[in-house]
Amino acid sequence: MTAITLANEEMRLARIALVGPPNSGKTTLFNTLTGGRQKTGNYPGVTVERKSGRLRTPVGHAIELLDLPGSYSLRARSPDEAITRDVVLGRQAREALPDAVVCVTDATNLGQHLRLLLELRQLGRPLILALNMMDIAQKRGCQISLEALSRRLGIPVVTTVAMRKNGVQDLLSQIDTLLNQPLVASGAIADWVEPAPEAIRTYHREVEQLLREAVVQEGAPERLTRQLDQIFLHPVVGPLILLGLLFLMFQAVFSWAEAPMDWIDGGMASLQALLSEHMADSLLKSLLIDGVIAGVGGVVIFLPQILILFLFILLLEDSGYMTRAAFLMDRLMSAVGLNGRAFIPLLSSFACAIPGIMAARTIAHPLDRLTTILIAPLMTCSARLPVYVLLIAAFIPNTTVWGGIGLQGLVMFGLYATGIVGALVMAGVLRLTLLRGGRQPLLMELPSYKWPNPANVLLGLLERARIFMRRIGTIILSVLILLWFLSTFPAPPAGATEPPVYYSLAGLIGRGLEPLLAPIGFNWQIAIALVPGLAAREVAVAALGTVYALSGDEGTVTEALTATLAHDWTLATALALLAWYVFAPQCLATLAAARRETNSWRWPTFMFVYLMVLAYLAAFVTYRAALALGGG
Amino acid sequence: MKTHGERERQAFALAQAVGLGFTQPLGRMRRGSVGRVLAVSGGMGGHDIERGLLEMGFVEGARVEVLHHGFLGQDPLAVRINQTMTIALRRCEANAVLVGPLRDAAEEVKPGLTLEYASS
Ligand SMILES: Nc1nc2c(ncn2[C@@H]2O[C@H](COP(=O)(O)OP(=O)(O)OP(=O)(O)O)[C@@H](O)[C@H]2O)c(=O)[nH]1
Ligand SMILES: [Mg+2]
């Protein structure tokens, strides 16, 4: 028999999978090893997809590393865990078995985490055990004999500190050793069956025995988390803090962003001034000034606000508060037939509905999951911010009501709250009608609190900024240029009384839609903005910028737009548009994500229709009520 | 293999035979009380609930401590297992876990808590 080592097979990438219980630090390890930028966070269920990256070990082996969703056992309960199971068992279509598995465990919770390792060991594949979070374990005075553990298990055991480069050296050299050895394959994978309750009990006993032998010194139990939870999970104080945090978040979005927004505004204005001074009047000049700067500038200006929102969300995710919020929300969520767990995808949807819809994979029950996917677009995503901010700045006076709370921030909070309440009501309705059926038990780990890692938060913010700017550079810019063409041609007839856009193709479309939208108070300019706004919400703001810029107003970008709107629209129209945006399905990517996750067009179609109907109704009611109250 | 009912009855009988006194489902334990798991059954949910509970660390012999209740003592509960991991769950599932007193109570908990628990 010839021993085939992976190292001998030149040009061949060794494929190694990171497997472990949720929140054990797999993705952090993956990022450190491959230089990747996958999302990490201190709650179970951050990773819901299979991700791969490349690295080269010190000895020179080329490796394809797989990051997988966390799972307590190979018995997958939810779609994300099924991915892990399928990769580990080689059941994934068009994908070979990984050559080796690194089981990543939390060294401070080996009593619970080693069971998965025993399950993996049964498969008889090359396996390395990584005891991660060793920094925390050591701080608590925990001592583990790697030698004893390795001898008893018959596999290499290393300690890691996942976010430090020098915390993963042992793992790398162990991988090298493994790859230099002959590969021992075995047929045990085909024999795998879901462990029965008795089998799990046996694993429990085995782990206990293992730890009795390998743990030299038990660590002190953690105190801080308990003390913090006395406050954060307090039945009365806890929900108040949650509400306060959300409130602070929306206030901050308004008050902290002012200065940086002014800088961007100033920059855009001088760019515009520069161009109008130095360029001869031409179509190109109009394209640049009215199309690109008025449109794009109108969106770029919201970068600071989006970053502030993300800063809050990243801090909540990294500190371990997310699961506490889910705990506090469980009662309310169960009243509408959902599960506290579903609150985590919904909270992520404040950033963007797409990761929220993907995160619903962590929900095991199919009906719970589908309901969560369907209501995710009602959570106010960051793309709505530009629309909200623009309209609030134009129509809501910047005064403070009791105790220094800004009225504008309050209205913003109201819009978010409307989205949340709408989502909960909708969930309740769905669970009582279309999606009636049994409910999923809640079984959720509440991880220890951790200080958010500043580097991690900073990277997360940069990543967001990059995504936002890329969106602007691609989809928003191209839609805008198209819109500029549609709004510029054909040229107005001689003796035109209305602004040129009125006679253009876009104007034609806008005026065509006007009868449909007049009952909810929208004029033809809004109609023009709503159509490209179907692709992505921010486009509507950019489009309004372009349409009104082409209507002849000059001046700085949003300042002018705010002023124009304030003078051109009635309060009732503005409020109706806000109400529209709380519900309207103005995002193609969300519908596409819903299609991917539900594997059919049926549910995204349903989603689109119900959101459209809600949006129209909400705008109608708001408009009529505002008119009746004298907001005309 | 034993059925769930059998396991529960056995644990109950055992607990009473050795004079451990009070046994009760996890879902009925007071906030702050500590105990040791005597039996885990599927309850109404069958095998899946049983496995789910076992996988989250609720296994015979584990030390459990009820840390928090929801508003007005309602769902959900936060339960600390073996002083290392905290799990949130609802009463419906928690009641599939049968809990008896800690035998080594004196060294593990403040006496006041055990007393209160034992008399509850
Ligand atoms: N102190 C310390 N924190 C760590 C270490 N490794 C990971 N963390 C933190 O633990 C948390 C979880 O890390 P992730 O990498 O997201 O965990 P994961 O295993 O990918 O989690 P899922 O994707 O949910 O399964 C994050 O807050 C990390 O910053 C470590 O070695 N030491
Ligand atoms: Mg992960």
Describe it.
The complex is a heterodimer of chains A (632) and B (120). Chain A is built from 26 helices and 11 strands. Chain A is of the alpha/beta class and 632 residues long. Chain A has 3 domains: 204 residues, P-loop containing nucleotide triphosphate hydrolases (Rossmann fold); 191 residues, no CATH class; 155 residues, no CATH class. In chain A, the strands form 3 sheets. In chain A, strands 2-3-1-4-5-7 form a 6-stranded mixed sheet, sandwiched between helices. In chain A, strands 6-8 form a two-stranded antiparallel sheet. In chain A, strands 9-10 form a two-stranded antiparallel sheet. In chain A, a hairpin with a 5-residue loop joins strand 2 and strand 3. In chain A, helix 25 packs antiparallel against helix 26. By secondary structure, chain B is an alpha+beta fold. Chain B has a domain of 80 residues: SH3 type barrels (Roll), CATH 2.30.30. In chain B, 33% of the residues lie in helices and 25% in strands. Chain B has a 6-stranded antiparallel sheet with strand order 1-6-2-3-4-5. The longest helix of chain B is centred in the N-terminal third of the chain and has 14 residues. The radius of gyration of chain B is 13 Å and the shape is globular. Chain B starts with a helix and ends with a helix. Classes of the chains: A alpha/beta (632), B alpha+beta (120). The interface between A and B is large, with 39 and 40 residues. Strand 11 of chain A pairs antiparallel with strand 5 of chain B, so a sheet runs across the interface. The complex binds guanosine-5'-triphosphate (GTP) and magnesium ion. Magnesium ion binds next to helix 1 of chain A.
Short synopsis of the structure:
Chain A contains 26 helices and eleven strands.
Class computed from helices, strands and strand pairing of chain B:
alpha+beta
- Sheet-strand content of chain A, in percent, reads 5-15%
What is the rounded Rg of chain A? 28 Å
| Global mean pLDDT of chain B | 76
Number of strands of chain A: 11
Determine the number of helices of chain B (DSSP H or I, runs of at least 4 residues).
5
CATH class of the domain at 23-102 in chain B: Mainly Beta
CATH topology of the domain at 23-102 in chain B: SH3 type barrels
Side-by-side strand order of the widest sheet of chain A:
2-3-1-4-5-7
Helical residues, percent of chain B: 25-40%
Name given to the CATH homologous superfamily of the domain at 23-102 in chain B: Ferrous iron transport protein A (FeoA)
**CA distance, first residue to last residue of chain A:** 88 Å
Q: Summarize the amount of helix of chain A as a percent range.
A: 55-70%
CATH architecture of the domain at 23-102 in chain B: Roll
Q: Which structural class should the secondary elements of chain A be placed in? A: alpha/beta
Bound molecules: guanosine-5'-triphosphate, magnesium ion
Biggest interface, residues from each chain: A-B, 39 and 40 residues
Low-confidence stretches of chain A: 553-557
Please give the CATH architecture of the largest domain in chain A.
3-Layer(aba) Sandwich
Let me know the largest β-sheet of chain A: 6 strands, mixed
